[in-house]
Amino acid sequence: MGKAGVMLRRAVEVLTLALLSLPQGAWAKWYLLASVHPNNLIVIDTDTDKVVKNITLEGRGPAMNIASTPAQPQYAYVVNELAQSVAMVDLDEGKQITSFPLSTPDELVRTMAMEANPADSHLFVHEMPVKKAPGRYEALPNRIRVIDLQTHKTVKTFPAPRQVMAMVFSKDGKRLYVFSVGQDITVFDAERGIRVDTIPLRHRNLTGVTSTDGYPEWSSYQEDNYLVSFSLVVTDELTGQMTSGIGLLDLAQSEPDLKIIELQPFTAESYNFAGVFSLTRNKAYFSYNSLWKIDVATRRVEKTVQLANTYFAPLLHPEGKKLYCGANWHEIAVFDADTLEPITTIELGRSQTGADYNFRFMRR
Length: 364
Prior knowledge:
The protein is mainly beta. The protein has one domain: Methylamine Dehydrogenase, Chain H (7 Propeller). The chain contains two helices and 30 strands. The strands form seven sheets. Strands 8, 9, 10, 11, 12 and 13 form a six-stranded antiparallel β-sheet that branches. Strands 3-2-1-30 form a four-stranded antiparallel β-sheet, with no helix packed on it. The protein is globular and about 55 Å long.
């Protein structure tokens, strides 16, 4: 090898070492996962906002909730088979590699909530079981099933509340926070499977407040340093006035407090399912028939844009520059997070299912 060849080889070695020494965020790319009818998982490159993979899952649909963790971004977990099974999908290979059936010959089991712990070692699935009997069904206590993702075996189950719509993990993986319809937040020790705390949400025991309702549908909390943000409604017991707001729960803290920020009167025009908070901008975003941005410090609506279709949820890109509106319809609309000007529309081919967490970000 000549002198020029040696110099070139050394230059390549230095460049390779430099690239490998960079933190993951310096070279990783963000993707958006979306589940659609009839039983498919869509992978979107957020640099180009183009669909790069359309993965057909096995068995029946509809494809619903998606779980994933930064620890193992190669894999995603998707509820399907009429909400009676969880498919494990290899995103690199673009195919389903196994599934975790929930129902048995003796029980019909469905789920509406699941989450993988931050280490991606276990999948936690909330189950709503009914016992099969000749001519009748018997409702059984709800539970959470824990599946070892190395052995694919169930390692334990433990009692859980009913009507669970979302589950989120603390950053260290030690606590599991469970959100149910019309209830306070239940906190579990994830390792022991026992209830250790309750965070007041519905019943805050505040003078003048009858109830507070909300849960973190479509919250990309793992990608936002474990800050959970979600839309909520506060009801005044004296006047009956309903106020919309944003809830914040910082799961990077060992004992987080729920912060509730009331923003605007809840009206037909401001009806929404979900909201998201930008910590860097101190703005809250909501969508349904329109998309609007509120300055949290002044509680003033800064801008509102009419949407071409009804989008159940806005999702803020982890880099904070773009908003993705979807969880319904056959497309995802992309907007500039500062101006709310439309950037593009991502055609999915089929409609999304509208389930919790049926689109979320993943860094690869």
